[in-house]
Every structure is written in C-alpha cells, then in structure tokens.
Design goal:
- Helix 1 packs antiparallel against helix 4.
- With about 180 residues, the protein is mainly alpha-helical.
- The longest helix is centred in the last third of the chain and has 25 residues, at about 150-175.
- The strands form 2 sheets. Strands 1-2 form a two-stranded antiparallel sheet. It has a two-stranded antiparallel ribbon with strand order 3-4.
- It has helices spanning about 40-60, 80-95, 100-110, 130-145, 150-175, and strands at about 60-65, 70-75, 115, 115-120.
- The chain is extended, with a radius of gyration of 31 Å.
- The model has no long low-confidence stretch (mean pLDDT about 80).
Length: about 180
C-alpha cells in the first residue's frame, strides 16, 4: 500500500443531505373567481329527480318499488306513479319562487342548433328505423328537457331577483348612514 494520503479530488463524495419535500403554496383566504360557484337550490334538484322518477322512468319502462328499493326494466312504457306525481306537484310549488339556474342550461341547449334542430329535440336526431320503445324513451327525455317554458324559467328567475333587490333597497333605505 501507498503511505501517501489520498488527494481530496479522488475521495468519494459524501452523501447529500435528505431534501425536505417542497412546501405547497399558501391557500388564499378569499375565494378566487374560478372557485366561486352558485350551488343549485335543493328544491330545484329535488324537482328534477322526482320528475324523472314520476314521469321519465315509467315512460322508459322502468318500474320502481319504493318500499323495497328494487327496479325492473321492461320494454313497455308504464303509467306515472300517482304518489310520485303528487310529490312532484308539491315540490314544484315550493320551487316556483326560486331562481331556475339549472333550467337556464336547458335554455342554452334550446338555442344551440345542428342542421336546424336544437339540442333538446332528441327524437329528431334518432334513426328513423328505431323501434317504438326507443322512440318513446327519446320522447320522454325530450319532454323532460322541455317541461318548463322560456317564459316560466325567465319570469320566475326575474321575479326572484326583483324580490331580492326590493329587500336590499328596503334594508338600505332603513339604514342611517
């Protein structure tokens, strides 16, 4: 062995110290414009779901047993369940004074056209050779999307905005600045 010391350039490099994981950027304390969203009011979601259960599902041949929670698919359209239809009318009455944010999307679908047909006219996009059941399923979906008129959707939403604006004006007038 050579008694001379090994020069530093030939020594193996010491192991690097472990790196700490990068710290995430701080979260903003106020919402950014992209993270702000208006949730759909619960009665509007309920009205939509109950309408589908009461009218669309039976028209598509789906039979639901609400006591057991079981469903059965048939190829024949069924009649609407009177109890669900009554529940739908009650929820719709509760929903009337609220803004129709979800229905505004359907209004946009009505304005978009492909070959002169709007996107809510699903039966017009079907193959003419489709059987009666497929036609009835498509018609039920089309009836669901077109269940509210433009006047109903815009009118009730504007009425809601008018009420909120009136309450804000009333509150503003009563304050003494």
């Amino acid at each position: 062995p050579d008694p001379r010391p090994i020069p530093r350039s030939r020594l193996p490099a010491p192991p690097a110290p472990p790196r700490a994981p990068p710290t995430p950027p701080p979260r903003p304390t106020h919402p950014t414009p992209r993270s702000v969203s208006r949730p759909t009011p619960a009665p509007q979601v309920s009205e939509s779901l109950i309408y589908k259960a009461a009218y669309v599902a039976p028209a598509q041949g789906v039979v639901m047993d609400l006591e057991t929670g079981q469903t059965e698919q048939t190829r024949e359209p069924k009649e609407a369940d009177p109890d669900l239809a009554k529940l739908h009318r009650v929820i719709k009455a509760v929903e009337i004074p609220l803004p129709k944010t979800r229905d505004a999307v359907y209004l946009l679908k009505k304005k978009m056209t492909i070959n002169g047909r709007n996107l809510t006219q699903t039966t017009r996009f079907m193959d003419p050779a489709a059987d009666d059941f497929d036609q009835s399923v498509s018609a039920a979906d089309e009836a669901y999307q077109n269940r509210h008129s433009v006047a109903y959707t815009i009118g009730t939403s504007l009425a809601f905005e008018l009420i909120v604006l009136s309450l804000a004006c009333f509150s503003f007038v009563r304050k003494d600045y």
